């Protein structure tokens, strides 16, 4: 039997991502600008909530409805690195079991990052902003507890 549900085509997922990106920019008071898109390349937008940096990226490829949301928690001080990495690796074990995302370190900037995947099939710009606001609160708490000593 044929699938009668129309799945969005690759370009439609990209267009939905661009629409969400434009709405996020507007909600953050960032002037509208033309988003230059090259469909073969990843497309990202960046914004901040309470001095916490976020980016969301749409990657072309196998799962065109997928997006990656990243919260840049802060720079890991060398004096606290072993403790912070131990705690985040322990957290990654639980996060992996619940498909809730993961911690990583940006090797170029030495920033601790929390990353999570979502789907354009079910997310709106409000959902994305609400998730980012919740992450920002947790990131602030983590900064105060673990990164403020640097």
CATH architecture field: 2-Layer Sandwich
| Shape type | globular
Radius of gyration: 17 Å
The helical percent reads 25-40%
Low-confidence stretches: 1-5
Fraction of residues in β-strands = 25-35%
- CATH class annotation: Alpha Beta
Biggest sheet: strands, sense, closure? 5 strands, antiparallel
Strand order of the largest sheet: 1-2-3-5-4
Would you give an account of this structure?
- With 150 residues, this protein is α+β, with helices and mostly antiparallel strands.
- It has a single domain, classed as Yope Regulator, Chain: A.
- The protein has helices at 10-27, 81-97, 125-147, and strands at 43-49, 52-58, 66-75, 102-106, 111-119.
- It has a 5-stranded antiparallel sheet with strand order 1-2-3-5-4.
- Residues 1-5 have low confidence and may be disordered.
Summary, kept brief:
The protein is of the alpha+beta class and 150 residues long.
Topology diagram in text:
Elements: H1 10-27, E1 43-49, E2 52-58, E3 66-75, H2 81-97, E4 102-106, E5 111-119, H3 125-147
Antiparallel strand pairs: 1-2, 2-3, 3-5, 4-5
Brief descriptors of the model:
disordered N terminus; five-stranded antiparallel sheet; 150 residues; 3 helices; alpha+beta; Yope Regulator, Chain: A; 5 strands
């Amino acid at each position: 039997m044929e699938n009668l549900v129309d799945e969005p085509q690759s370009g439609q997922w990209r267009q939905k991502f661009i629409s969400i990106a434009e709405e996020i920019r507007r909600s953050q008071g960032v002037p509208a600008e033309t988003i230059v898109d090259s469909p073969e390349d990843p497309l990202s937008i960046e914004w901040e909530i309470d001095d916490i940096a976020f980016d969301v990226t749409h990657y072309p490829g196998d799962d065109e409805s997928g997006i990656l949301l990243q919260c840049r928690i802060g720079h890991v001080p060398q004096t606290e690195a072993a403790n912070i990495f131990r705690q985040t690796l322990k957290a990654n074990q639980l996060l992996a079991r619940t498909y809730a995302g993961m911690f990583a370190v940006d090797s170029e900037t030495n920033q601790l990052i929390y990353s999570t995947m979502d789907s354009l099939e079910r997310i709106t710009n409000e959902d994305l902003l609400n998730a980012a606001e919740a992450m920002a609160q947790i990131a602030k708490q983590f900064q105060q507890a673990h990164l403020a000593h640097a």
